[in-house]
Structure formats: structure tokens, C-alpha cells
Amino acid sequence: MSKNVKVAIVGAGNMATEHLKAFSAIEGVQPAGIFSRTPTRAVALAATYPQMSVCDSIEDLYNKTRADIVVVTVRELAMATVAVECFKFPWIVLLEKPAGYDLVDATRILDAAQKANSKVYVALNRRAYSSTRGALGELDTTEGKRFIKVLDQQDQQVARNIIKEPEAVVQNYMFANSIHLIDYFRVFGRGGIAKVTPVVPWNPAEPGIVISKIEFTSGDIGLYEALWDGPGPWAVSVATPQKRLEMRPLEQVTVQLRGERRLSSLDISTSDTSFKPGLLLQAQQAVAVVRGETNFLPTLHDSWYSMKLVADIYGIAS
Question: Which CATH superfamily is 127-269+300-314 part of?
């Protein structure tokens, strides 16, 4: 019989709510406890789950629940401190992205996890989108080199004035937000990254267009295009000699075959409409880790390599 799994959560914001919804939908999984620096929000969220304890600290969270998984949903500037505290206990740690507000912070988290011998994963939930999984399935049966193109758009003024992000996050928004797009290079590109060449370099004094070429050891080629402080879509495409796939929006995927102009849409899982896209499958993967089953949950190392790619694209020294 499959092991029953207890899940604890740190944070009580929107992402905590979405993670709990996904985990609680899995048979044999129990939301067991919550800790937040805003106790009133933790109490309100716990009221939805009668078996969930509201705890006073991360240590209290582990001692009261003996949870198998802790999901950390705190803001970027708090992630390193909270993560290191979580590494002290023998649960599986699932960190919300980004695991660090810049590459230095990400390296600090990675080093701490290794020192503590902690099993740490990162919630790169776009890897679990049914559109992403469908695109990978199409590519598995397709030969030839891949040309991966990522279109990104970021707006520091929106981040600063509307979302009210801290200035340190705004200045590193390529890590905090572009990681969502840049990680796709490592999803669809095969082999290691051999070279990153800036075509239009990042200028922090005058944010605008950023273009970089990414070369893989397999021969696959990537092109990153970003528009800062202007309108634009988020989109990903992968072209091969036989077919071209496009994700725009990212939650959907179309396929165009060679010699045809029409686009065929791949089916999207109902789990990506009933839950925040990717979160149910991601939660199932985390549970599979606990149960010793095969899984593709991204590790902290996976996340760090994507953060390193962000730094290379933007010419930011570690």
C-alpha cells in the first residue's frame, strides 16, 4: 500500500493556497501544518483543512507534523533564510521559484542544502504544464536539431509601482520573473549548454531589448528575445525539420507540420484548468519522491543551472 504523505507549508499567500489545493486532491496526502509570519492568514487558510496545525516556527512546524514534505512559498528576499531553516529537518523541501533573488543568493541556498544533505526541489511548475509535457512528447518522436526561441517581456515600472516589489527584486527581475521563460531552454534543449553569446546585451541603465544566442552540446540552438518596459507576449517555440511547436500562451501548444500551414492544437489536461496549471502534476511528482517512485520533479541543482543561464544571458557576474 502506498505510503500516506503529510505536507506542511511555510507562507499563507496565494501560492500557499494553490499548493494546498493541489496536494489535498491526491489520495493518501494530508495537509498537516502551516507556519506564516502573518498568523491571521495562516489561521484563515488552515480553517479549510481541519487536520492542519497552525505553528509558531519552522521548528514547531516539523515537531508538530513530522511532515514528509514542506512547501516554502515565501517572498524572494526571505527565501534563503527560510530555506536554510527548513534544511535542518529531514523532510523533502519544495521551494517556490525563484530559489534565490539572484545567482549569488541561489548559490548560497544550494551550498546550504548540500552542507545539510537536504533533499531539495524547486517548483518550476511550467515544466509540469500539460502543454509542456505534450510538446516534449511530440519532440520525442521527431529527429533533427532543434531551434528553440523564447520571447520574454518584463516591466520594472510595473514591478516597482503596481506589484510593489522590493527594489532588490526589481533590479534582479530577470531572476525573479524571467526564470519562468529561460528555464524552457533547459527543458527543450538537449545536452549541456556550450556557449551563450549576447547579440543585444542587457543595459541596466536603459532597459530595452535583450537578445542572446544559446548553443547546446547536442547542436540544438536557442534564441532569447526580451523586451523590457514595453508590451509583448510570453511565448516559446521549438522548430525541427519535420514540425514546429508553439506555446502562446504557455498553457497551450500548437503543432505545424512541414508542408502544411494549418495549426493543430494538442489537448490540455483538465488538471490545468481545475488547478493552477502544472500544480497538480507537480504535487504528484513530489509525492512520488516521498514514495520512492520515478519522478521528474526539478531539483535544486536544476534550478541553479537555469539561474546560471539567466546570469549568462544578461551578462551578470556571480
Answer: Dihydrodipicolinate Reductase; domain 2 (3.30.360.10)
Q: Which residues of the chain form beta strands (DSSP E)? A: 5-10, 29-35, 53-54, 69-72, 92-96, 120-123, 147-154, 193-200, 209-216, 221-228, 235-239, 243-247, 254-257, 264-265
Q: Please report, rounded to a whole number, the percentage of residues in the chain having pLDDT higher than 90.
A: 97
Per-residue model confidence as pLDDT tens digits over 67-76: 999 999 999 9
- Residue ranges, comma separated, of all CATH 3.40.50.720 domains in the chain are 5-126
Cell numbers describing residue 8: 506542511
Q: 246 - beta bridge partners?
A: 237, 254
**Residue 1 — very low, low, confident or very high, per pLDDT cuts 50/70/90?**
very low
DSSP 12: -
The set of residues, in sequence order, having a beta carbon less than 8 Å from that of 29 and lying 6+ positions away, is 4, 5, 6, 7, 23, 283, 287
Distance CA 274, CA 285 (A): 18
318 band by pLDDT with thresholds 50, 70 and 90: low
pLDDT in tens, 23-51: 999 999 999 999 999 999 999 999 999 89
Q: Residue 140: pLDDT above 60? A: yes
Residues of each domain in the chain carrying CATH 3.30.360.10: 127-269+300-314
Q: What's the chain's average pLDDT? A: 96
DSSP strand pairing (254-257 vs 243-247):
antiparallel
The C-alpha atoms of residue 182 and residue 222 are separated, in whole angstroms, by 10
CA distance 26 to 300: 24
Q: Residue 289's closest CA among 9, 17, 13, 29?
A: 29
* Percent share of the chain, pLDDT over 70: 99
For the domain made up of 5-126, the CATH class stated in words is alpha beta
> 87 near 157, Cβ under 8 Å?
no
